[in-house]
Design brief:
Helix content is 56%, strand content 14%. The protein folds into 2 domains: 110 residues, Rossmann fold (3-Layer(aba) Sandwich); 68 residues, P-loop containing nucleotide triphosphate hydrolases (Rossmann fold).
Length: 197
Amino acid sequence: MIRIGITGGIGSGKSYVCQLLKQRGIPIYHCDDEAKRLMVESSTIRQELNQLIGKDAYRDGQLNRPLIAQYLFADTTHAAQINSIVHPIVKQDFIEWVARQKASTIVQECALLFETEFTDTVDCSILIYAPLDVRLRRVMQRDHATRQQVLARMAQQMDEEEKRKLADFIILNDGTTNLNEQIEELLERIQNRNLSK
């Protein structure tokens, strides 16, 4: 089985590329979605968040999102504290998910693939890359946000040029370059590389 990690900054088009891969029958594990699920379902996460934030971290069995958001924005170190609770559980959940898959290739979509060191759970990484102006336009339209709001969110993520250095492969998603051709070529290269090991 080949395990591919897909990452990219906000507005790069990770989710769209994952849709194209899913159409090819490749199972996708979406780290963000699974983290949200596990923050509700995992007793370990619940217990540790209650210890960190207080008993109001959950209300009626659901995550108290306004309180979590308030905690996150109160101090720059708080995100790392929450991540240190959530990420190990997500990583273990991914490993268990992989064990249940029958496909020859699977994908993990992870916005923080490099930041969380989830690279040790995949065989190779693909960065979905788009120029800054394209990403800005996409997120402003999608989220009805201002340029300043989007730039502030981008500033919280690892620099795209830094990600380019770390990624094994890059897919250019600038709105003009053919995505399907790039995907087909990359899948072939990854499979050939895996066979030659």
